[in-house]
Design brief:
282 residues, alpha/beta, 8-stranded mixed β-sheet, 14% strand
């Protein structure tokens, strides 16, 4: 896929669908010169770029079953509903080691989307020299508003990139790619309820631009979905998406559901290959 970008949506543990798609790509040596991911898409993209087949599945399913790292106990202890230290320190450094050398020498250049709390705008970051900074960027991209604390990158507070750019297709176009494979974690045709939403005045009062972005989040997301649909109709992108609503929360802990979602991602990629969507190297 020499002239094609890979775009990975987030979605918390719905991203297990993406893990299945990424493992199909790795099993069949489908490599992209550029990839961009947000939140769960950032986590999946790191392991894809380092060519660590199965790593995301292990993190999302096997380690969830072993450590149960999501829940209110975590929130009361650390201010995060998810044990972020386990995910972004213990996992990459000890439990599910991340191959930083493989990452920085990869043929894929990967960017992760974060939201700058001060500006309320998306930033697209990568790091090829400092492994701890790289995982810190991924942690910021995955830090959900309200339930996670901001992560400071270069003294700037950052949160989940999905607040303003859940499907960073336009970023891939800005980077010069006219063709993209876009992996979604919602079925085609999905749209968020567009009800007006205003945060209570005490939430993120120190970040007015972030508040404004959060108030417009559904509207922005639906606009991005409309753009994806338009680009697919024009034949400029291929969309990989579950055919059914996954009916799984961002912080799902049901292991059987997560395994089924991973298998659905893999089987969806197989089906699309059989339909001629993916060119295999071997």
């Amino acid at each position: 896929m020499k002239n094609t970008a890979l775009v990975l949506e987030g979605g918390g543990l719905r991203g297990t669908f993406t893990s299945g798609v990424m493992d199909f790509f790795l099993d069949n040596e489908i490599y992209f010169p550029y990839a961009v991911g947000v939140s769960a898409g950032a986590c999946n993209g790191l392991s894809y770029t380092s060519r660590q087949r199965g790593r995301s599945k292990t993190t999302n399913i096997d380690m969830m079953e072993k450590f149960n790292y999501v829940g209110w106990r975590q929130f009361l202890r650390s201010g995060n509903l998810i044990d972020m230290d386990l995910l972004f320190i213990d996992f990459p450094e000890r439990l599910v080691p991340f191959d930083f050398d493989g990452y920085k020498n990869s043929s894929t250049y990967f960017e992760m989307v974060v939201t700058n709390c001060e500006t309320g705008k998306a930033e697209y970051l990568n790091e090829l020299h400092d492994e701890k900074l790289l995982t810190k960027i991924c942690r910021a991209s995955s830090s959900l508003p309200y339930i996670c604390q901001p992560i400071f990158i270069d003294n700037k507070p950052m949160l989940d990139g999905g607040i303003v750019d859940s499907i960073p297709l336009k970023r891939a176009i800005e980077k010069g790619f006219e063709k993209s494979i876009v992996v979604l974690t919602r079925p085609k045709g999905y749209r968020k309820s567009a009800k007006n939403f205003q945060l209570p005045s005490f939430i993120y009062k120190q970040y007015p631009n972030l508040r404004n972005a959060l108030n417009k989040r559904s509207e922005l997301y639906n606009e991005q979905l409309d753009f994806v649909q338009k680009m697919e109709k024009e034949g400029k992108i291929i969309v990989v998406a579950p055919e059914i609503d996954l009916k799984v929360g961002r912080i799902e802990t049901n292991i059987s559901k997560l395994k089924a979602i991973y298998n659905l991602g893999y089987s969806t990629a197989i089906k699309m290959h059989k339909n001629g969507c993916f060119e295999l190297k071997k």
